[in-house]
Structures are given as structure tokens and as C-alpha cells.
Design brief:
five-stranded antiparallel beta sheet, globular, alpha+beta, 36% helix, disordered N terminus, 8 helices
Length: 144
């Protein structure tokens, strides 16, 4: 899902939260949210994901053009060199862009609940947007 930040602000405001009552609602409003959210009957992950998407919307829409994971918050980080250099683990982080091309989405933030989840994204701070490649369960690593 591509977040076009200036135009999305209204949809990711508190009114947007009021219209989301299930994972199905989020699915209907966003293009690439994974099945784990649809099955989240208690909305625990859904609320965490919405809060993180709202923060990403604000962060990528501000006037600073340099991407800084610490400023984004939620312990945003890039995958380790081990993951980036391991063909099997690297492949798990390759997702389709809106253009149809595929890219590696090594940057991510986490959420927890019934399972440990991740939002993998491709930052493009200079253009005030980021592309969300994956929202769902923690992808395999060498340790996890």
C-alpha cells in the first residue's frame, strides 16, 4: 500500500479510527493489509497498526527530508546484515510496489499481542511518502 501522506491525513485522523470496527474495515480501506488483521476479532493488533500508520503518516509528511528511524519512533529499524545477506531471509522481505516492480522492504516497526507482528516499509522521506509492503506476523530471521 502506498501512503500518499498529505492526502491521507484526513483518512488517518481520529475520525478514520471511528470508522474502523474490524480488520475487514481496515482491509476495505487499505490495499495490502494481510489476513492476520482480518482475523483479529479483539482488534488488539488492528488498533496498534492504526496507531503506527497514523504516526508514519505524520512523520513522512513533515518538512524534514532525511529519514531517521529514531525520529519515526516505535523502535523503527532496518534489518540486520545477516538478514540482508541471507538469500532465503532476504527473499521474504521482497514485496511488490504500486508500479508492479518488486523491492526489498528492510525497514520495519513492530507490534505485539497474540503474535509478534511487523510493518515492513520502504521509506522515501524526500518525496514525503513511504510504501507499506507487509503488515503481519514477524518474518523469519536466523534467531526467530
Amino acid at each position: 500500500m502506498l501512503i500518499r501522506l498529505r492526502s491521507c491525513k484526513a483518512r488517518l485522523s481520529s475520525t478514520f479510527f471511528q470508522h474502523i470496527s474490524s480488520g475487514q474495515d481496515l482491509w476495505d480501506n487499505k490495499d495490502s493489509v494481510k489476513d492476520q488483521l482480518i482475523e483479529d476479532s479483539r482488534k488488539f493488533h488492528l488498533v496498534q497498526v492504526l496507531i503506527r500508520l497514523q504516526r508514519m503518516n505524520v512523520y513522512f509528511g513533515d518538512d524534514d527530508t532525511d529519514y531517521n528511524p529514531q525520529k519515526l519512533g516505535f523502535n523503527a529499524r532496518t534489518e540486520s546484515e545477516t538478514v540482508q545477506q541471507n538469500p532465503e531471509l532476504k527473499k521474504l522481505r521482497k514485496f511488490r510496489m504500486p508500479s508492479g516492480e518488486t523491492e526489498y522492504f528492510f525497514d520495519h516497526i513492530g507490534f505485539t499481542g497474540n503474535y509478534c507482528g511487523r510493518i515492513h516499509f520502504l521509506p522515501n522521506k524526500a518525496n514525503k511518502k513511504c510504501c507499506i509492503g507487509y503488515i503481519g506476523k514477524h518474518l523469519k530471521t536466523k534467531r526467530f
